[in-house]
Amino acid sequence: MRRTVIAGNWKMNMTPAETKAFIEELAPMVKGMDKCDIVLCVPAIDVPAAVEAAKGTNIKIGAENVHFKESGAYTGEISAKMLVAAGVEYVVVGHSERRQYFGETDQTVNLRTLAAVNAGLTAIVCVGETLEQRELGYTETLLKYQTKMALTGISKEQLKNIVVAYEPVWAIGTGVTATADQADEGNGYVRAAIAEVYGKDVAETVTVQYGGSMNDGNAAELLSKVNVDGGLIGGASLKTDKFTAIVKAAN
Predict the structure, then answer these.
(1) For 91-97, what is the mean pLDDT?
(2) What backbone phi and psi angles, to 5 degrees, belong to 171?
(3) For residues 119 and 99, what is the distance between their CA atoms, to the nearest angstrom?
(4) Is residue 123 within 8 Å of 163, Cβ to Cβ?
(5) Which CA distances in Å does 105 have to 13, 41, 95?
């Protein structure tokens, strides 16, 4: 059975005090909803407050980025070892905003994924196409390429610490959501890429999320699809009621 994972990606939002208040409000709302993993991926400055506030709850804490080196002259970056020491369990890798604004490439996404998994973190690896690429008919080719590149050097055993999130770039922060069928199709391409490398049986065990304007209104339909094993939630993860509704749909 694949584990459903509902992960909030807060992006550059929330102070430590706001983080503490948010989790204290959310925790009783999602208590007992144990049919999926509930994760909040928060800005680095909020990690200590989030980890402390989430103690004793069913909420796990993730980070939004990780560097591929253990230490060194990388001003502003954070290593996997540091995240583990801080109590982080998940980390988002290769989000389209990291690729677009901060020069992430398929190669650095792979290095970061390896660093995260080797340190014991679960990596939420993001893949997705632009609107132009979709209109040119490259969706399947691109998703398979990005998935295989990101997982280069990852063993079958390590795949248990990999979640892949299909995030069509044209549906992130735009209010435009892929239809449930488009999401299922994209996730299916990701799973097919994993099957081509690791075998079909292994691919069936990997959690593949959909991200890209999943919200409380469309979550149930998206999550009903056979290849959609959860969501990487942006804006809706900043509201306790909306995020709870998505977790409820996953349960």
Answers:
(1) 96
(2) -115, 10
(3) 23
(4) yes
(5) 24, 21, 10
pLDDT of residue 51: 98
Q: Are 113 and 150 in contact (CB under 8 A)?
A: yes
Neighbour tally for 17: CB within 10 Å: 10
For the full predicted model, state whether its pTM sits above 0.85: yes
Q: What is the pLDDT of residues 159-170, one digit of tens each?
A: 999 999 999 998
> Alpha-carbon distance 164 to 153, whole Å?
15
- The H or E element that residue 151 is part of is none
Q: What angle do CA 68, 116, 150 make, to 5 degrees?
A: 80
171 CB-near residues (< 8 Å, 6+ apart): 177, 178, 212, 213
Query: Which of the four pLDDT bands, split at 50, 70 and 90, describes residue 5?
Result: very high
d(CA 211, CA 32): 24
Local structure of residue 140 (DSSP, 8 states): H
| CA–CA gap between residue 81 and residue 118 (Å, rounded) | 10
C-alpha distances out from residue 77 to 25, 69, 81, 83, Å: 30, 9, 12, 11
Residue 149, both tokens:
């590149």
Distance CA(176)–CA(189), nearest Å, equals: 21
Q: Give the Å distances, CA to CA, from 168 to 121, 182, 214.
A: 24, 10, 11
**Residue 212: pLDDT over 90:** no
CATH domain 4-250 topology: TIM Barrel (3.20.20)
In the block, tokens 């409380």 appear at: 216
| Cα-based distances in Å from 120 to 56, 90, 116, 127 | 21, 9, 7, 21
Active site residues: 95, 167
